[in-house]
Structure formats: C-alpha cells, structure tokens
User: Fold these one by one.
Assistant:
Number 1:
Amino acid sequence: MKFEVTILGSSSSTPIFNRNPSAQLLNVNEKFILIDCGEATQNQLLHFGLKANRIDHIFISHLHGDHYLGLVGLLSSLHLNGRTKPMDIFGPAELLEIIDIQFKHSQTLLRYPLNFRITDPSIKEKILDNYDIVVESFPLDHRIPCTGFRFTEKQRLRKIIKEKIDELDIPSEMIPRIKKGEKFIDKRGNVYLSADLTTEANVPKVYVYCSDTICSWKYLDFIMNADTLYHEATFMNEMLQRAEETFHTTALQAAEIAIKSNAKKLLIGHFSARYKDLNPLLLEAKTLFNSTSLAIEGMTFEI
Amino acid sequence: MKFEVTILGSSSSTPIFNRNPSAQLLNVNEKFILIDCGEATQNQLLHFGLKANRIDHIFISHLHGDHYLGLVGLLSSLHLNGRTKPMDIFGPAELLEIIDIQFKHSQTLLRYPLNFRITDPSIKEKILDNYDIVVESFPLDHRIPCTGFRFTEKQRLRKIIKEKIDELDIPSEMIPRIKKGEKFIDKRGNVYLSADLTTEANVPKVYVYCSDTICSWKYLDFIMNADTLYHEATFMNEMLQRAEETFHTTALQAAEIAIKSNAKKLLIGHFSARYKDLNPLLLEAKTLFNSTSLAIEGMTFEI
C-alpha cells in the first residue's frame, strides 16, 4: 500500500531560488490529496508530471497567500479540462468567500461539484474518514488562525499468501473473507484458519503536517508518534527572536518537537528567502534529530 | 528612449507546455508597467531577471483568472520585500473587492499605498497621462466585460547634437532650454537657433494591447495606427466556430485586424492549450500580414 508525500513547494512567503510556496501531494494508495496550494502549484504539478485531476481532496491550513493563492487557478484549470467528479476542500470558512467571489466575477460555473468543509482552527477534530485514510485537523499557533493536519492510514486487512491460493485452489470470492478472518475449508474437508493463509497487515502509518506555527507545546498532544512529521522551519536558531515575532519556528526547534513528539522521521520546509543554501538548516536540525530531511521541490518521501 | 515589451505569458486559460497565462512587462524609458498578471507572473519576472519592484503601474484587462490570478501574490511579495512607493492599479471595480477580501483575511496591511483606479469597460477613456506615457482603455468584446489598452509615448523634446556642445562651449544649464526651442548666443554674440543645435525628436510610438475578444470591428477605431499591435489569437481559423462561441479570435482574424487598423507590427498570443507547436498559428497570420511575431515567454519586442 502506497503512502508517500511529494513536495511541490518549500518556500515561505514568496517564490525564490526556484523554490515555490507551500504545497504537498500525498499519495494514499494511489488516491491523491493536496495539502496547501501556494501560487503556481498547478505549474509544479505539471513540472513533475503529476496529474492534477487525480486529486480528490484539498486541505488548506490557513489564509496566508503562500498557502492558498494557487487554489482558484487549479480549480479553474480542472473545470476547463473537463473534470466532472467532485472535489472536496477542507479549509477556513473565509476561503469559501474568497473562492466564491472570484468565480462570481469570472462568471464561472464549475462543471464539477465542489464540496467545501469548514475547518475549525480552535479544536482538534476528525474531518475525513474514508476507505483509505482518517484526517484530523488541530490548532497551530500562528499570526492568523491556522490548522495542522494528521493523516492516519486505515487499518488494512491481513495479506493473503499468494502461494496458498494455487496450492489449495482457493476460489477468488473467498479471498476477501479469508483476509477478514474467516476460515477456509477445502473440497476434502480440511480446515485452514485465516492465520494459516495470511500474514499480518501493515501497521497504519501516520503523517503529520505542521505549517506555519510558533514553536509551542500546545499542539504536542495532537502530533504524537508520527511516522513522518513535516514541520515548518522558517529560520535558523540564531534568528529565534525573529521567528517568535513572526510566529514561526527555527530548524533547531523543529528537531526538538520531533523528539518530544516521538516522530520517526522529520521533514523541514517553509524556508525563509534569506537562505539560498538550505544545508545549514538541515545540519542544525540534525544536531538534535538525525532523521531529518529537507522537504524540497520534487522530493518524494515514503511515510 | 526605450519603449519595449517583454512577454511573460502566452497561454490562454491554463499553464501548459512551459507557457504561462497572460502578462507583459512594458518598459517605457526605464519605467515599468505590467499588463495583465496571470498566476505565477512573479515567478516569470524572477525567471527572466526582471525586478518586480520597478513596476509602478499595473493594468488588468478583465477578471478571467488567467489575466489576474497572480496579482495578490505579486502585491504581497512586494509588501514582504519592503516596498514603500505607491502602486497604481487600473482594472474593473470588482478586482478591488477580490484584492480587499484576500488582504482582509490574511490580515495584511500593505506597507505601500495601493491606488486603485476603476476602468470602465463600456467606453474609451484616457486613464493615465504622465511624463512618459498616455494610456487609454477601450471596450473589447468578450464573454465578460473586458478592456483593451492603448499606450502612447509622450512627445519628447528635440535631441541636442552632442558635438555642438563642445564646439560652442554651451553651458549645461542651457541645454534643456535649447531642446525646448530657445536660441543660444555665444560669448562673441553669435546667435544659433535651436534648429541648428538639435535634431527632430522621435515620433511618439503607440502600443495597443487587445486581450480576449471576439474579432469585431467595434473596437477598430480605438486601435488604429499602432506601431505594435498585440492581439489575442487563441485559435487557428479552422476553429473559427469555437473562437466565436468562446468570444476569441483566430490567427487569421488577428492578421485581418492588423491590416484594417493599419498596424506596423503584429504580436499574437493567448494560445489555446490544444497547440503545442505554435508555428502553424504564426504562418496562418503571416499569409495575410507578414510582420507578425509570436508573443512568447521571454521575448522582448521594440515598439
């Protein structure tokens, strides 16, 4: 089962040094989720050969432009390219106003249903629960209301041992039932337990996305035990005061949060335009937490 | 005196084949004007090494996303990068609503004055008249209200003949007066007429920008005698019916308009995503009007 994230933007505020503002594409078992959508996200999707029309869910963390300004363009392009299947968008209530006013003045009537689900930046809540994934939003601590997102894979069924299918001539209609735990009785009356024919399902993995927040322990409970934690790291720690003034986090602090939240891996991003070379940010985080990577454009990380 | 246009976007509707939506940068004597501002225009400026902060005037033709979706991002970046000098924006009244709601929800208070001038898409009117240029807007004929823009260089002063300065030892403070037509009397009392010391000023050049319109003679009067006419040419003429249905123009029609309006040069752009290769569009226009060029990303045309 695939569960991986491709980074489309790593820049804070403005595009610079070929870095784009925030956007990430989550592949959950070949179903696609977009997390944030900075300006030119659709260009990034094209650039990396990723099909925008495969996205069915979009999550927007907050209303600073570098996290959503690409949304109306992306939705328009899907419309113009003939999309008919629904798109579910999760974001602050005011985002719907911003979308509506623009489609009103361009006289655009989308050809596909756009289902808007309002996120509440003051509480933790489950906002999506489908066959593949559970998504929870939770409050971060930024200059304007901002939510993080926690993506938990659904518990999968046990995995059938392929060799047993041929060996015991198991009919295909029995396989889903065996995966669910039923026993199988062959023509001669031999009984096989599900545990004999299957192996353990993968343990569901967790991806946590923390965009734009001051480093704070307020949200620690919501991000515990991530397999992969994405956390913004706008500044080096020598800019701590600036980070606090602007409600952002330093690379060192992001590493501290990874440790305190018991993350297995840390991705850092949302880099300030003052850093052309990002290696110092990576090295700073690694002094505390070695399993850190730079979440930069075009990189794909297995969760 | 410089008067040239650099193309930042040539695509209609969606970004594709490395083509971006509409935007052009006009250099008028080293003062910069942005015409339309599709998504990722700021990326294009960066890409071509053009400084966004040198832009002091922005003209938006209409409210289809491919002509304005890059505006809020550009204005935000200028703010974040410390701009203090004013920006003048000319566009439909509803554009101000779209800008305001986004700055409201991102809690952005621009550090620089943003002067918004409403254009009226139903009439021809002079909307700017400064030291360098006169700009007029005029109605085009599109699915939603849309204006074209006519940029006319200001009449320049006569040009001094440099050799005469040394030869006659003309003091520098006299030069602007001589350019304006005053005579010069040297120490021996010899009188030199302005016409003896200067050559003719350049004839003011005209650039006309016609984005998104069905081919129509309604706007012909407003675009007469352009030195360079930019006209959209979304389709080949074999797609004439589709062009008419969508209120767009074909390459052949753009050439016809260039002839009828007595343009010296024609630039065509706003190409449909169906054309990967643009040469057929160029060749089609050239069958009628040979001085046609493709207005594609990164090209600069002297007007």
Number 2:
Amino acid sequence: MARAALEEAREQIAFLVGARPRQVVLTSGGTESVNAAVWGTLAGDPGPVALAAVEHSSVRDASSRLGPVVAISVDGTGRIEPAAVDEALTRCRNDHGRLPALVHCQWANHEVGTVQPVVAVVARCRDVGVPVHVDAVAAAGHLPVDLDALGADLVSISAHKLGGPPGIGALVLRRGLRISPLLLGGEQERARRAGLENLTAAIAFGAAAATLAAPGRLEAEAATARRRTERLAEAAMGVDGVVRIGATDDRVGHILCLGVAGVEAEPVLLGLDQAGVAVHSGSSCSSESLEPSPVLEAMGVDGERSLRLSVGWSTTDDDVEAFATTFPGVVGRLRALQG
Amino acid sequence: MARAALEEAREQIAFLVGARPRQVVLTSGGTESVNAAVWGTLAGDPGPVALAAVEHSSVRDASSRLGPVVAISVDGTGRIEPAAVDEALTRCRNDHGRLPALVHCQWANHEVGTVQPVVAVVARCRDVGVPVHVDAVAAAGHLPVDLDALGADLVSISAHKLGGPPGIGALVLRRGLRISPLLLGGEQERARRAGLENLTAAIAFGAAAATLAAPGRLEAEAATARRRTERLAEAAMGVDGVVRIGATDDRVGHILCLGVAGVEAEPVLLGLDQAGVAVHSGSSCSSESLEPSPVLEAMGVDGERSLRLSVGWSTTDDDVEAFATTFPGVVGRLRALQG
C-alpha cells in the first residue's frame, strides 16, 4: 500500500510538470533539490558554474562551494537575457579555458516574480553541450511547466510553494541522466536519494499537484493571484514614492515586489503585522540574515526599502483589502515620525 | 506561532536525548543527519575515517565517498570492542600517517540490536583528540540516552524510529561545535541546515519525544518491546535450525534477528506476509538491493537466511502471537518443498 501510494504521488507530480514518473526524485524540499543538482553535476565534472546573482541563495551558495562562479548579468527587472548567457559562456572560455560545468537559469524569480526566458537559455546551453539546471520553485504550479519540452538536465521544485506541505520537493532529471547522489546510504528513489521516503508528505504533494493539474485549474489560480497582486500594487502605488520592482507583465502572478521611498522595510513589516498582514522583505530564506538582498542589488535596486508580497491558495480578497486599507497609514506614520 | 512551535519541538527533542536545544539541528531524517555529520567533519579535514562494517549503509557510503576507510573489527554478535577501536587508530597511523579525521560508533545496531560500548569508545576517541560520530538512530527512544554525558561530537537520530513521523531527524552537535553545512542556501537552524523548516513534522517529532520523556515511559516501552521480542524468539526457536543473531542481553529490546537454516529469507517473508506479518531481511534501507547484508557478513553470519523482526508502539500482543502461530508452518512447508 505504501509503495503504491508513493508511486501514485510521483505520477501526480510528474504529470503536473510534464515529466515521466521515473524522472522525479523526491527530496526534502527545494533547497535539497538544488544542492543535489549542483553536487550531482559537479561531483563528476568539477568546474566553473555560470549563474546570475538573482538566483536563489541555495543555487548561489551550493555552486560557489564547488566551483568558481561566472556571473550572468541581468537587466533592471532581474531578467536574464539569452545574450547575457552567451556572453557568460564566452567569458568562461576566456577565463577558465573551458565551458561551464553547469549553467543555472531560474524559471521565475522568487523575490520579484520576473519570468526568465528559460526556453531560450536552455536551448543555447544544450546547443553547446553544457548541462543546465532550472530552479522552477517559484514557477511550478503557477505557470504551465512542460519539462520534457524544455529539455533542461535538472529541474528543482518544492511542494510548499504550490499548496503542498513543507519538507518535500523534487529534483526532476532529464530522461536517462544519471547523477551522483547527494545523500548516500540506501537504494531509495532508484538509488538517487537515500533515506526513508517521506510518504505522508509525498501523498500531500501529489494531491496538491493533482488539484492543480485538473483542466483549467492552474490557469484559474494564476489569474486570481495576478488579479490580487495587481490590486495590491494599485493600492500601494496610491502612496507617494512607492514603485514596483521587477517585470510587471512577464511575471508569476503570485509575487509582487515594491520599493518604498524614505522608510526602511522592517518598521513597515512590523506595522503591517500589527494589522494582521504578513509581508516580507527580500527572500524568505534570508529571514535570519540582515544582509540586503543580493537579488535586488544585482538589479540595481535598494533592497533595504523593498517589500515582497505574495498570495497563495489560502489568501482571500479580504486579506488583500486589509493590506490596501492599512498600508498607506503605516507608511504615512513612519514618514511623519522621521520628520 | 510557527517559530514558537518549532522551538518547543526542539526543546522536547533535546530533553529526550540529554542535550540543549541549540545543539539540535533538524534534518530530513537519519540518513541526512549522517551525511551531514560526515560532510561537515571531512569538509574541514579530509582524511581517513574509521568505522566498523556493522555501521548503517549511510555511515559507510557517506564516509567512503570522502576518505579512505579504516576498518574497526567486530565480534560474532556485531559488538565493537574498545580494543578494536584502539587497534584501528594504530593501524590508521601506520597506513595513513595520521589519526582518523572521524571515527564512527553506532549506539545500537539497526539489524541485530546489539548495543555498542559507545561510552568507552567515545572516551577513547576524545582522549586522542579524534572527532567521533554516534549513529543513535536505533537507540534513541529505546534506551536512555544522555548525549551531554556521552560527549560525542556528532549524534544522529531519526523521528520515525521512535514513534514520530517520516521526513524528520536531527543531528545533535557537541556544545560549541561548528561544522560545514551539507545543505547550503539559507540561515535556518542557526545557519547549520538550509531549507524551510518542516514544521508539521517537527511538532510531531517533538510530541513523540515528549511522550517518551515522561517519567518511566521509555523504560516501560522498552520492557514491553523486550518481552515481545523474547516471545518472538522463543516461538521461532521452537523450530529446528533457528538461531538468534546478535547480542541476546545487551541489545535494544525492539529488534530481533534470527537465522533460519535451510531456507532463504525471501520465501519466508512472503509466507509471513500472506498471514499479515511483516518482517524483514537485513536493513530496511537495503530493501531495494539484492546484496547480502554487510552487517551480518562482518559478523560471520549467513545474511541470506536471516530475518529481522521489530516491534514498535503500534505492535500488539496479537501481532506477536500471529507470528508465533504462523512461523513454524511457513518454515516447515518451505523445507518440505525443498525435499
């Protein structure tokens, strides 16, 4: 029964992202998937890694541990232009005498929501025979994702980002790709990830994936999310000195990033929190850190004055209106305090 | 609320094993804990690793990936004598010109239940300044465990082995020890393990730990488990050619290993399964593999004819009697078939 339930969950997850079940390696989450992708590739071919500074900290940190990093530049919306990837490949050849051992290209940015030209970037990498990892954690479940059509070597996804539970994610491998496992010590997951399978979380991940894979459901959820973040943006930008950060159209609908002139993010968060509105500054994975966001820095944006707003399956229109009602007063009071 | 619940769970887990909450790094399970212990130690000091072949496959595989292995011998019950550790340290000096970068000593064996002289082994390693990792996955929750008194550098435990859920475990670090994290990309767990915390599983892990930490509860559970496995042993050894494998007294009460002469394990498992009795051959982490158990091989036992029986919080006396009733007939029929 346990085995059948696990494999049914794997089928549901694979179906949502356009892969076959055997390509799906279940992990403990997006961070482990990314670390496993980097380790699995670089263990066999230690070498330089090309990535943009807007990648998630797990991509940046796991890569820089194992090889020199070749930077891919981004524009002011955090977008990775395919020409910037070409430029990085050339620079890697010049600086390191070879092509990168791995290129990263996120599908969508986790802080500002900008969708990357991932199809074009993957195609370029495959043309020159360079393995490519796509961090699809912010995209899967929010955009239609067809991994077999994409052709990336490794793709990371996370359950809790699409309505599933914490503690589970997946690394989806290109058909036939064998990589060196990060976690050793058992033959689980076709000997690609050791450790007792997290069956309860896998079933819940599968259920979330199956819900989103029902015809029209993902598109409907995405449209609702976009409508809500547009309303959040409209309400926020009614306040002087508030701007949107990141792409406005070519973005995932559930993430909105705002810049607020003249006040730091922290007191705004606290003021909103008192009204029952939870927002964030920067990436949630840097919530313990006081460093400014490297994502926003790479885009040339002042990260200390940015707010990240996100909506999900549990968000209501009332939540959105609570922000719209509260935000102008919170910012106004803080600005008044500063004289 | 989430933060408070997570830290309460951490306190409950720490209390069960005699550590302080800040020493507890939550992981996705025993396998990740072991891999993180090995990586964390050897990343800073790549060198030989001393371990016995009776260690769990995660200990063996994670270690042999990163350094040469120096074998610690065991006796016929799978016991690691402190003198064998001394001998391995000397051999390491002779063969590699240095002491090991890491010594492993499991607290209890996962296949045969033998309890190791872990206090003496840890003391010897600390005397000579060698870091020691204790795989306490089969012991924590089944024996009184006082990690601060033990003084090991790194200790791995797993929730599902003590009544908690799958997908969560802990790596307990000696006070003040800093190691290089296996999973990078976030400041969670005091920057010792990146990735969104698995809050739901942590709460359940904490609840299981708190239940076992109630006065007398662990001892009562252990006594019940021992009574049941003794009854299983008695019933099985009523059949000709059935012997116990591993230590009979100095063992964890919930694990029993049997050797069955003249029949292979697989058809016995299937026969018992038809009667609703689930037993195992070898380690559950090798359930996908057809290799004989290296644990039993190290003990000089024929692993192809061994059964591993375990009892847990959900086992009933009726389950035990179902085995006692079924086992003689299953073995008898198989032997008759072989003529």
